[in-house]
Predict the structure.
Amino acid sequence: MKSTPRKYDTDSIIKKTRNSNLELYRIIVMLLIIAHHYVVNSGLFQVLQEEPLNFSSTLMLLFGAWGKTGINCFVLITGYFMCKSQFTWQKLLKLYLQIAFYTIIIYGVFCITGHERLTVCNIIWKLWPAKSIASGFTSCFILFYLFIPFLNIFVPSLSRKSHLMLVTLMLLVFSILPTVPLISISFNYVTWFAVLYFVGSYIRLYGFRKSIKHSTWGWISLLLILIASCSIIGMTYIYKTGFIPKFYPYFFISDSNKILSLAIAVSSFMYFKDLRIPHSRLINAIGGATFGVLLIHANSDAMRTWLWRETIDCIGNYRDDVWMTLGYASGCVLIIFVVCAGIDWFRGKFIEPKLLVGTKRLFTPLARKIGESKIFRRIGI
């Protein structure tokens, strides 16, 4: 009888920590992801290739460098919390309804404006949740999410030593070796998200050495960011000398499985995990909208064309005046975040509850027939 209250007390403390520290972490990470999209989804990256070593180009390359690292940060949070949380179809339903809502609304708007073509096949394809396991965060994440209940069965069966050995082996195969030039190892994001789940769950269950101070994780993060920044400048210089034929400044952080992307994500996660800040309802509300920010601003190719090329015109606003360029880019990133977060807050407060109730009414009779009505027992979890 005594162990149960202790368990709930622990979960309550972790939830409070997540609502403040890690929600702030989500906000910062999403801003970095938007900045990454500002550079790589707008055609600006190709413009920077023309004069890659001038100060403006270098600054914008660094400005947009951290998107893949940000993906690692988000999935680490998922592994950290979900390894001790019960998987429910209600959570999966909420995830899908959020994705489908933005997909259909944005698709409809772009059909009206002429950016998309309205066909039945397109509608079906838009609503299909899993389109690829090699690219596209949303498709890969929802597929990975289906594996969580099985991973949650497997993880408790591992000893601390076995868990650490498994993480070490997976990082060697899927992260360290692919970072080495000339070594090619195929990977997909569903598999990589599972690797991050094991890393996040190890941190949750066992943590790292207590001798590593909280502030040390911050300094490690800054050092790794500095090393990654130097790698960007170094790879740009190597390209400019003609030693390599391809412009590849982000080689060491070009994808989520690169060792520097992973190391920065883990060290920064460890720092924010234990960061002491007051509990804030505002931070919690904004942090809870970050996934919606991603779903809106990175929704489709049509959205990328309209947002980055036509509306913001990243290329047209790239100037020799470094601070004007950086100021404009930073302002656009902040505005996109605020607008999209506001939209998702409105959806979550006024639209999502009605969608969940409507879905419950639609599927509960069928679920009752097959003995699974408990799937829709709780709304809003």
Summary: The longest helix spans residues 322-369.
